[in-house]
Design goal:
The protein is mainly α. Helix content is 55%, strand content 5%.
Length: 121
């Protein structure tokens, strides 16, 4: 789990309650840098950096996401993918990167289907 940029490792089963606003991802929501190996996954990783990165990393992550989204939109023939990416970027720019990541996971599934890439389990 990552909370406000800090990785947390659980050694036992735990119940967590966040009592204040926090930027967090856990489990399969977290993408390692080496897994950002396709255009959609690079968008996800950039948005992830904009969301849970250190304060100095977040603006760069958002800038990278803007460029990667523009490149993806130029390359795709799917109007739905373009619409979803527009919504993801709007969410990220409104500081709702968690929603942007959810939308980008849809683009990853779309890309996997188009490229006939098997999803990791």
């Amino acid at each position: 789990m990552i909370v406000n940029g800090a990785p947390i490792r659980f050694r036992t089963k735990s119940r967590i309650e966040l009592t204040a606003h926090a930027r967090f991802l856990f489990g399969k929501q977290i993408m390692a840098p080496e897994d950002a190996d396709s255009p959609a996954r690079r968008i996800y990783f950039a948005l992830q950096s904009a969301y849970i990165g250190a304060d100095a990393e977040r603006p760069g992550g958002l800038a990278a996401a803007r460029q990667l989204i523009a490149d993806f939109k130029d390359a795709t023939t799917s109007p739905l993918a373009r619409e979803i990416l527009d919504r993801a970027l709007q969410a990220a720019e409104a500081d709702d990167c968690y929603q942007a990541l959810k939308l980008t996971r849809r683009i990853i599934r779309h890309e996997d289907a188009v490229l006939q890439r098997e999803r990791a389990t």
